[in-house]
Specification:
The chain has 740 residues and is α/β, with parallel strands linked by helices. The chain has a six-stranded mixed sheet, sandwiched between helices. It has a five-stranded parallel sheet with strand order 1-3-4-6-9. A four-stranded mixed sheet has the order 8-7-5-17, with no helix packed on it. The structure holds alpha-D-glucopyranose.
């Protein structure tokens, strides 16, 4: 029997559907056959709370597989991998009775200090968007909904519920909305979560421009906009702006405010009905039965291990220190080897079904291992004593493997600096001074400074936070069972002061100014020529690859097909990330030195070559033109570059694009220079200006050509009032007519 249209129910009942029925579920509408659907975290595993409920991970949750957080998956540069994680998280969501997963997070890593960067993929919007869309496809293929978050410009934790992100339109479009646009238009998530913060003074939850004009009208989003938990201030304003579902609930006061606003004519009932229908549609994702994750736990743990290994980035490997040969005498140093840091704190926290440690995993692979903690992160040991013990333990070893990292990275708090704890830096230096070979393994949710010990280490592995199987994954990479293929998804700077947001993070007096504009991450470092420790896209392998035979064919309408050959020139099978950047100075705006516009990951056996073909859509060449308020491909030259990283171009070819010819729509407020440059208005205005001039004045004007340069920026409206200008407003209006 067809369900009644929930919009036909009494207004009070409809209003109640627009806020949660409890902390994690929507309100059921039995009379309309609308069940309650459970929405819960998170991006790298299910946090299903049955007893106490909270949005910060304080209360316990059901066991589930903790996959590698986004900081690691972002380093894989592998959309297929991200999709497999999404599918597994989706399977466990259903097993735990969850119909909507609150993930992925695709916010851009504007500053390495953001405490929540471990939950996000990259400093680059293309990499973030492609991986986020893959996660959504994977999860939704399991019959659960995914929720892309936090929409938008939520790039810090400091004052996150009150701060206003002050950002210009071009930067908003090109950097902070682009990943959301890709996820929404390519993967069609069931929901979008509005962020806590304001954007240019307007709360994200009440931001009609973002939630309706951009998200729905421009991008065609048809799902549910759900608030972040506790983010809604003015419920009526939020509903009118396009926010369907307030979480958590219930909230009778806000329900009553909706009813009152409709009754008083301040809120159109049609707006309420549209939201009611969308929330009711979301509720169809409700999961009837719960089985628990036991049946999939073993397979998912194996998947978590495979995924994690492909996220590890080999930053440095001098003297072929890695992979570790069998039978080596190893001294493993560092608390993180025995007590791994495999995820961050807050709402994404997963109660892992099991946790592998690097120490056990190295031993199980047959390595002869001596272990010393070297330091403690809970202050229970004397640093100097532990350091001296470690130095003694390293004597006689062939290789020292030092596991260092950060504890306490969490949602809700930003970092103060990029440093590893001083006692860990001292430990690395002390060990490296005596060990024949020193390998440093980093367990961090974001990039850290490598300065002060980088040159002492023979090899450095960025292990990020790798989820519950990260210990085994690290052992697989260190021993060579897996050839590392990760690439940096975020730049490792030399100093915090070098970061483009340094002077504007985390803001002041309730505002954070995005003064660096589009120059975020590598876009800044490469454009100003600032040296970094390791650039975006960097990562080593145990084999070598060669790129040649690049061709770029413009295929009409400002799109291009890029073809190149990649060869594995080494002795081991390995995966290589092909990175395609575009560099141009076309257009009336300052462009970054280059921007990532396509990428793919290929696995090649020794000696194997592969022709890789990638399409550059016209958006790959466009910038956002704020005067025309649209994406614009400026006519001109574009150089397609193949990068080993954002800093190392190994091949390039320049093509010319016809582009869009948008002559600025003239008005009386346009600069007189734009009038004179206009193909139609220019000649007419010159004729009008010279109509009453004497021959001498004409010759003078010819001689003063550059004079026009000086007056070019005067708005036409003011130019008319200059002495000697014989053109009237009516004359300009007539010319304007001719240009239309
Ligand atoms: C949190 C987070 C959001 C999470 C939600 C529910 O505060 O900002 O990412 O999904 O609340 O836990």
């Amino acid at each position: 029997m067809p369900q009644p249209d929930p919009a036909t129910l009494p207004l009070e009942r409809k209003a109640s559907l627009l806020s949660g029925g409890d902390f994690w579920s929507t309100q059921p509408l039995d009379e309309a056959g609308v069940a309650a659907v459970v929405l819960t975290d998170g991006p790298h595993g299910i946090r299903r709370q049955k007893a106490g409920a909270d949005h910060l991970g304080f209360h316990a949750s059901e066991p589930a597989t903790c996959f590698a957080p986004a900081v690691a998956v972002g380093s894989s540069w592998d959309a297929e991998l991200a999709e497999r994680v999404g599918a597994a998280v989706g399977r466990e969501a259903r097993a735990l009775g969850v119909g909507v997963v609150l993930g992925p997070g695709v916010n851009i890593k504007r500053s390495p200090l953001c405490g929540r960067n471990f939950e996000y993929y990259s400093e680059d919007p293309l990499l973030s968007g492609v991986l986020g869309a893959a996660f959504v496809r994977g999860a939704q293929a399991q019959g659960v909904g995914a929720t892309v978050k936090h929409f938008a410009v939520n790039n810090q934790e400091t004052e996150r519920m009150r701060v206003s992100a002050e950002v210009d339109e071009r930067t908003l479009r090109e950097i902070y909305l682009a990943a959301f646009e890709r996820v929404v238009t390519e993967a069609r998530p069931a929901a979008v979560m509005s962020a806590y913060n304001k954007i240019n003074g307007v709360p994200a939850s009440e931001n009609r421009r973002l939630l309706t004009d951009v998200l729905r009208t421009e991008w065609g989003f048809e799902g549910v906009v759900v608030s972040d938990w506790g983010a809604v201030g003015d419920r009526v304003a939020a509903l009118a702006a396009g926010l369907d579902l307030q979480m958590p609930g219930p909230d009778e006061a806000h329900d009553a405010a909706i009813v009152e606003a409709v009754r008083e004519g301040r809120l159109d009932q049609a707006v309420v009905d549209a939201s009611v229908r969308r929330v009711a549609a979301l509720a169809r994702l409700a999961v009837a039965s719960e089985t628990g994750v036991d049946a999939v736990a073993a397979d998912h743990h194996a998947l978590a291990r495979e995924v994690a290994a492909d996220c590890v980035v080999l930053l440095k490997n001098d003297k072929y220190t890695l992979p570790l040969a069998d039978g080596l005498r190893l001294t493993v140093v560092g608390e993180f080897a025995a007590r791994p840091q495999f995820q961050g704190g807050g709402s994404s926290l997963v109660n892992a079904t099991r946790v592998d440690t690097p120490l056990d995993a190295l031993r199980s692979l047959g390595h002869l291992v001596t272990y010393v903690p070297g330091f403690t992160t809970d202050g229970t040991g004397d640093a100097e004593t532990l350091r001296e013990e470690a130095v003694r333990a390293v004597c006689g070893a062939e290789v020292a493997v030092v596991f260092v990292g950060l504890r306490g990275e969490t949602e809700g708090v930003d970092r103060e600096n990029l440093d590893l704890p001083a006692d860990q830096v001292e430990l690395v230096r002390a060990v490296a001074a005596v060990a024949p070979r020193t390998v440093v393994v980093l367990s961090t949710g974001g990039v850290v400074s490598l300065e002060g010990w980088h040159d002492s280490a023979d090899a450095i592995v960025a292990g990020w936070l790798l989820g519950q199987a990260g210990g085994s994954a690290l052992a697989d990479v260190l021993s060579g069972a897996v050839n590392p293929s990760g690439r940096l998804a975020e730049t490792v700077p030399l100093r915090l002061e070098d970061t483009p947001s340094f002077l504007n993070f985390p803001g002041e007096a309730g505002q954070v100014r995005h003064g660096e504009g589009v120059m975020v991450g590598y876009r800044h470092y490469e454009s100003v020529g600032r040296a970094v420790r390791y650039p975006f896209g960097h990562g080593l392998s145990y084999t070598t690859f060669e790129t040649d035979a690049l061709s770029v064919d413009v295929t009409g309408d400002d799109t291009a097909t890029v073809r190149l050959r990649v060869t594995n020139t080494g002795e081991r099978t390995g995966k290589h990330v092909v990175q395609v950047y575009v560099a141009t100075t076309a257009g009336r705006v300052r462009r970054p030195a280059r921007e990532l516009r396509a990428f793919t990951k290929v696995e090649l056996r020794p000696g194997e070559s592969r022709i890789v073909e990638l399409l550059l859509e016209r958006r790959a060449f466009a910038h956002y033109d704020i005067e025309a308020d649209r994406w614009h491909v400026a006519p001109g030259a574009y150089t397609v570059q193949i990068g080993e990283s954002a800093a190392e171009v190994v091949a390039e070819q320049t093509v010319t694009l016809i582009g869009d010819n948008i002559a600025a729509a003239l008005s009386l407020d346009s600069a007189i220079g734009d009038w004179l440059a206009h193909p139609v208005a220019g000649p007419m205005l010159r004729a009008a200006l010279m109509a009453e001039a004497t021959e001498q004045e004409r010759q003078q004007a010819e001689a003063n050509g550059d004079m026009m340069e000086m007056v070019a920026s005067i708005p036409a409206r003011q130019f008319l009032h200059f002495p000697g200008v014989s053109v009237s407003t009516d004359d300009l209006t007539e010319i304007l007519e001719a240009t239309r």
